[in-house]
Amino acid sequence: MIWGLLIGLALLAFVLVVFVLRAPRAAREAVAAALLLGVAGYVAQGSPGQPAAPKAADEPVSADPAALVDARSRVSNKGIPPSNQWVVIADGLARNGRYADAAEVLRGAIGKDPKNSEAWLAMANALLAHSEGTLTPAALYAYRQAAKADPDNPGPPFFLGLALAQAGRFAEARALWAGLLARAPAEAPWREPLAQQLAKLDALLSSAPRGMPDSRVSPP
Question: From CA 149, how far away is CA 147, in angstroms rounded?
C-alpha cells in the first residue's frame, strides 16, 4: 500500500506544480525529474516493512547547500514575493544539492521575467555551486544580469565578490565589497559580516608577497 501512496503523492505534486502553479514548459522536466528521482531513491533504498528504530545519523549532512540559499535570503534587500514561486521551488532543489535542476527551473522564471533580479542571482549561485565553486562565464553573466535588473540589490556584488575571492581574484573582490560597504545602510543586517569579510581580505592582501599575482594566493 505504501508504494501506491508514494506514487500518488508524486503525481499529485506534479499536477499541483503544472496546473495550479502553472510551471513554464522549460521547468516541467526538471520538476518531474526531481520527483522521479525521489521515488526511485525510495524504491532502491526504502524498507517500508521494516519496524521503526530511532537512530542517530552516523555522519551529519553537510549544511553547505542550504547555507547558500539562506545566505542569499539574508543579504537580499527583500523577501521572495509570491510571484517568485519558481525561485522558491529552485531554492528547494538547491537545498538538496540539485543545482542543475534549480538552474533549469530558474531559466524558466527568467524567460517569463528577464528583470527578475532574485531569479538571476539564485541562478548564478546555483551555477557556481554546480561547477564546484568555479566562476564560469554563465555564472558571471547571471551575476551581472542580477545587478543590472536591480542595482540596489546588495546580493549580486556580495556573492560575485565571494566567487571572485574563491577564484583568487582578490583585488576585484575587494573593489566590489568596498563599494558595497560604502553604500550599505547603517542598519543593514549584512553590513557587519561584509565588513568582517573585507577586513580578512585586506589582511590577506597585506600579507601576500609583493608582486605575487592574486591567482597564486590561496583564498581565505
Answer: 6
